[in-house]
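Crash report, auto-generated. Payload:
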Amino acid sequence: MLLIFFTLLGAVAQSQKSVTVAVDNKVTFTYKNDKAQKVELMGDFSATETGLFKKSKKRQMEKQSCGTWTYTFSSLPSDLYMYAFKVDYTDSLQLDPSNSFTLRNVDTYYSAFVLTGGVGDFFITQQVAHGTVQKVWYPSTVNGMKQRRLSVYLPPQYQSEASRRFPVLYLLHGSGGDESAWLECGCLAQIMDNLIAQRRCEPMIVVMPNGNAELDATPGESPYIQAKPSANNMTSMLGKIEEAFPREVIPFIDQHYRTIAQKQQRAIAGLSMGGLQTIFIAANNPSLFDYVGLFSAQTTNLMGGFAGGALNKVAGVMNKINNFFGANTKSDFDHVALYKDINEKLTAQFATSPRLYYIAVGKQDFVKKLNDNFREKLDELHLPYVYNETDGTHSWSNWRKYLIDFAPRLFK
Amino acid sequence: MLLIFFTLLGAVAQSQKSVTVAVDNKVTFTYKNDKAQKVELMGDFSATETGLFKKSKKRQMEKQSCGTWTYTFSSLPSDLYMYAFKVDYTDSLQLDPSNSFTLRNVDTYYSAFVLTGGVGDFFITQQVAHGTVQKVWYPSTVNGMKQRRLSVYLPPQYQSEASRRFPVLYLLHGSGGDESAWLECGCLAQIMDNLIAQRRCEPMIVVMPNGNAELDATPGESPYIQAKPSANNMTSMLGKIEEAFPREVIPFIDQHYRTIAQKQQRAIAGLSMGGLQTIFIAANNPSLFDYVGLFSAQTTNLMGGFAGGALNKVAGVMNKINNFFGANTKSDFDHVALYKDINEKLTAQFATSPRLYYIAVGKQDFVKKLNDNFREKLDELHLPYVYNETDGTHSWSNWRKYLIDFAPRLFK
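Recovered output after restart:
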């Protein structure tokens, strides 16, 4: 009786869905607004569109009777989609009022929708054994703060096998992200639960620190109230996060969790800015990681300071600030010892024979050229790596897929 | 240098704040939109306004030059405020695009802002020792599901004193809430961190199960994708949650955490529907809890079935469903053994001399009369309780304050 009752209510709720899926993944988005003159659907619906959401293609929705607007894709690939509506007479995006699943990317909230039947099946909670997610504060001195927050994923086996110890993947977010980014946009817990249930990857602990030097925790959890996350958090690129990582994060995790505290059982990976941090953390600490992953890494300052493409802004802001203090921009970065002598450090790191150095990037990503340059450097130095070149751009759609490709290669 | 750098950036960010506070808590909300003809500020800014957000008072914002709209309160009490903007030509609410702190209440997202300098100081992350928050799945059979999700708060001492055991507060949410509700709108971790740091309450574990029988987890974490939380989740009031609680939740927690598994070290409290569940869980299991808290409890079905005010809807929907099955509504509830013989059960419960039976409700709350009736029942039965009657209505503003009043009374 109760099960039928539940199903009946489910059917009632279903009729109000704002995203409907027909055969061949024909997907229709619906938004009710009888006052609007124009409504556009915003979202990253194509692999070749920019991952910078606010610049994404606007799709004009069609007004139907009863003040309902619709947009139909004849076919969409299975994925997690983040979308919003842009209504005339408002500058900001409108969340889907019929959808309670919302995700924040940097400073903006979007409605989220998983289209199953493919890779999207990894992004939903399946009827498998689930891991545990923790939000933990640890002592830190970065930027004069006393504590920083990190997220931890513990595999289902951590609970069911009370004395077993586990390998650890340290997974870093990008500029503007925080300790929630991989769990939210990255679907980390769902992906790991599903990979482990399918025996495609080893049960492992995943640690997601906050690598944003300006904000110690996600909005609402940081003492810095009203501080807004920004994709140009320049202080995160001054080497402080990388410097603190082996002193603050790893010992804390090894002390408080049942880890296997060995190079062979420790991996590090990061996306975009987190990829940059990954390169330097691993190269400066050659005895720590046997597995390294770069997902659309910001390799910019390996290529001769911060002059390159996307990080021009950093140099610009640093210039302003340094003018204020009468200092010189370039020297600020050059004086970070951690960033120096990268060729020698990479050579020393590879001399310890790491089991995997993994580089993934999309053909349309704005860091593609920088990654080409970085791979050229590795080739010149005769340092071996695995390269995964995909379609698509600087987007969570790619980073989730890189995780699915990367995690099964670890600790085997 | 880095600290100054950080401060400078902070100052830059500050100039873009959409909520500014002047002397005497004069608060101005700002929203930029040069296309709108009319903008209203929505939010629960007064204790006597309804806690049902969508029915809250609309405040007409004033258009300033440069397309900026403002609304100024001459003085607001310190609190956490949830707000949004209503712009002409849109039916739905608009989040504050300059504010990254967002909270979901039932199915709707609002921008959030903490006004410090009073009770609001409990709602922000202070520079004190922080506890850990966990999201955990546990085996459950409610409504034919196999697992349900709960949240756990571990006090700072759980990490720093590795062999110490702790008392447990089980804290239940209201209709439409889930395992995230107390952590998000309820600021549970911040309040507990601050109370414990001030030595105003004992270090304790707080367990927040998902008491929504229709949804096993918060949106994005449930296998039921596109299911929308509802404040009328009727199946949560059929006794199943209360029945499963002592069999599924408590043993799981006692098995996996360093609890003190004794009545003297176990408390239960709940708001609204969670208050209803609290009454019946405690009354049906007199040996389990020495501390019971009811925050704006939905005591309706203690007063002769589900006929009373707010739950008429439940009876209505049940009628429809039962007509479908040819059954009778009232008998469905009456047949729930757990709800029967409440007078006898309460008397048996109080015969075990619980240390605290706490009832809190606001003068303007729609459940005030029902709570009066429930207290009359307790008086008639000569069962002692502590009563905290406050200003205000059925709102998170009150529930946070009740927690601050209740938690220090536990385990002393």
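Post-recovery validation: DSSP finds eleven helices and 17 strands in chain A.
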